[in-house]
Amino acid sequence: MRLMVPHPGHFEALKEIIEVKEAEGLNEVDEVFMGGSPEVMGSGRGVLHAPLIDEIREQTEYAHQHGIKMNVVMNSPCTGGHHLTFEGYKMFEWYFSELNKVGVDAVTVAEPYLAELLREFPMQTVVSCLSYVDAPQRAKFFEDLGADVITVDTNINRHFSLLEGMVKAVKCEIRLIVNEGCLYRCPFRYSHYNLASHLSSLNQPRAPLFAPDFYFDKCINIRLRDPTQIIKSAWIRPEDLKEYEAIGIKNFKLSGRTKTVNWIIDCMRIYSKRSFEGNLLELLDCPQMLRYMFYIENEKLAGSIEKWKSCKKICNECGYCGALTKEALTYLK
Predict the structure, then answer these.
(1) pTM metric for this prediction
(2) How far apart are CA 210 and CA 229, in angstroms?
């Protein structure tokens, strides 16, 4: 197993992550990822600390000294068309060149044009989950564009037949995000990430500095009214990683680069050790506030993966997740 760990972007956080990794022998930790410069493009998350090229060099050198790869995330699903202009092309070519010079190992992108542009550089091209790769055919398209790693659309984390078909269809690596708690088949997902990409960008003059997050508020509201939606989300329990390894997937990613370093380290430790006792919501990147409202006993979810592996995902005819919610979820006062 190879585990990719989120990094908030500042040097002290990287040092803490690597110190714990080495002190506890968490050899599964293979790579860290952080946001790129918002002056170049936005991303699917806010950037709390945006290191300049010189700091990226220092952090990359430090990571390499400890056997860790560095990945820079530039996965905005919308650039307003700027990337297709001559100025945009030259800007991305320059930035990728600078990342390559300082030793960055991989760049994560959502835009197919940028995936193809990255072929000019020796860095790994990692396709973001925001490219919504959800079928073998789509994976093959991205591999042909130059993808070395494809981060699968989290909506199919429990669609084992699709995942197995994807592994067989391409030669590049397939990567799964294990602790995202977004709604399954969320109707707001595309619009929400489009909003995030604009709010996190400084190179689009008409991008607002702030906007009310309508999509997040709706997302929370739906789960408060119907907690079954939490169980239906596509998270993967630490204990169930072996089920994915059995079909040929050995590359896993933790979500949460905007979270605290302590939380990131706890998740890194738990997924490396493949075991957790407690409230599953403590591990989920989105939305963390639900852990103060609900307690989902992870131990009571044991064996649920067997049902999900063969589930047809026709929820109105099934009822399994509803029954599991009644068994495993407790309302907190």
Answers:
(1) 0.94
(2) 28
Q: What does DSSP say about strands 124-127 and 329-331: parallel, antiparallel, or unpaired?
A: unpaired
Instruction: State the Cα–Cα distance between residues 47 and 254, nearest whole angstrom.
Output: 17
In this structure, is residue 132 part of a structural domain?
A: yes
Question: For residue 97, what are the CA distances in angstroms to 68, 92, 119, 196?
Answer: 21, 8, 12, 26
Question: Residue 13: is it exposed, middle or buried by C-beta count within 10 angstroms (0-12/13-18/19+)?
Answer: buried
Q: What CATH code is carried by the domain that includes residue 43?
A: 3.20.20.70
Please give the C-alpha separations between residue 274 and each of 50, 98, 168, 236, in angstroms, as whole numbers. Answer: 31, 37, 26, 11
Residues 55-111 pLDDT 10s: 999 999 999 999 999 999 999 888 888 889 999 999 999 999 999 999 999 999 999
List pLDDT tens digits, range 151-193.
999 999 999 999 999 999 999 999 999 999 999 999 999 888 8
Domain of 156 in residue numbering reads as 2-277
CB 201 within 8 A of CB 76: yes
Which tokens belong to 205?
A: 């003059």
Domain presence at residue 45: yes
Domains: count for the chain: 1
| CA-based R_g, the chain, Å | 19
Residue 109 resides in a domain: yes
3-state secondary structure of 135: coil
Q: How far apart are CA 6 and CA 26, in angstroms?
A: 15
Catalogue the E-assigned strands of 242-326: 251-253, 294-296
Closest CA to 183 of 241, 131, 243, 228: 228
Rounded to 5 degrees, φ, ψ at 146 are 130, 10
Residue 313 lies in a domain: no
Q: Cα(108)–Cα(106) distance, rounded to whole angstroms?
A: 7
Residue with tokens 């790579």: 31
Question: Which of 328, 178, 327, 311 minimizes the C-alpha distance to 245?
Answer: 178
Question: Can you tell me whether residue 31 is helix, strand or coil?
Answer: strand
